[in-house]
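Quick review question:
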């Protein structure tokens, strides 16, 4: 049987694949992401996930590579990860009371067959109309730092989300439903007795 490789250092993606019982190894891609390509956010997410998969594939035989890249998109622009509390506060002030999109591009690549499948999934997230005091309290928790869009839905950030439209796990960084369906094309069936 072919080895499955997760081309990501993300602890969330690792945790999600473990939850569905997939046996895999982790090898971060170290792919240099170019955010200035002029592509739409969904095209860019797919392109970067493909680049990550190919970067790991060149080092392996008899393997299936899974890679992904996730963006927060607000009013057509990609939001990055805040490095400071001030940046996190500013991002959350922009997002409060408004919807934004979480877009994940993922790629599955069979190294030996050079078979590739790349998709993107969008989930719409509605952030509550937070008060400045609520934003400050959340920022003080330090959770928003280094998180795309300045929140983590699987943590304390869950209390700032009013609702979502789409795949919850996509917001965490890996759209499990779409991924499991796509894996079937590579002979990998998560639900098989």
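Suggested answer, residue by residue:
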């Amino acid at each position: 049987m072919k080895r499955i490789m997760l081309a990501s250092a993300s602890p969330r993606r690792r945790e999600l694949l473990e939850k569905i019982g997939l046996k895999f190894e982790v090898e971060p891609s170290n792919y240099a992401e170019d955010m200035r390509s002029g592509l739409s956010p969904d095209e860019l997410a797919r392109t970067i996930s493909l680049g990550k998969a190919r970067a790991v594939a060149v080092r392996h035989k008899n393997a299936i590579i899974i890679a992904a890249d996730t963006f927060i998109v607000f009013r057509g622009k990609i939001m990055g990860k805040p490095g400071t509390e001030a940046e996190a506060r500013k991002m959350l002030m922009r997002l409060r009371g408004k919807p934004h999109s979480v877009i994940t591009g993922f790629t599955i690549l069979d190294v030996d067959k050079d078979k590739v499948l790349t998709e993107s999934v969008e989930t719409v997230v509605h952030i509550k109309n937070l008060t400045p005091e609520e934003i400050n309290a959340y920022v003080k928790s330090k959770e928003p730092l280094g998180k795309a869009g300045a929140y983590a839905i699987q943590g304390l950030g869950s209390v700032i989300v009013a609702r979502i439209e789409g795949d919850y796990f996509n917001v965490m960084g890996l759209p499990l439903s779409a991924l499991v369906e796509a894996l079937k094309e590579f002979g990998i069936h998560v639900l098989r007795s």
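Why it works: The radius of gyration is 17 Å. Residues 41-57 form the longest helix (17 residues).
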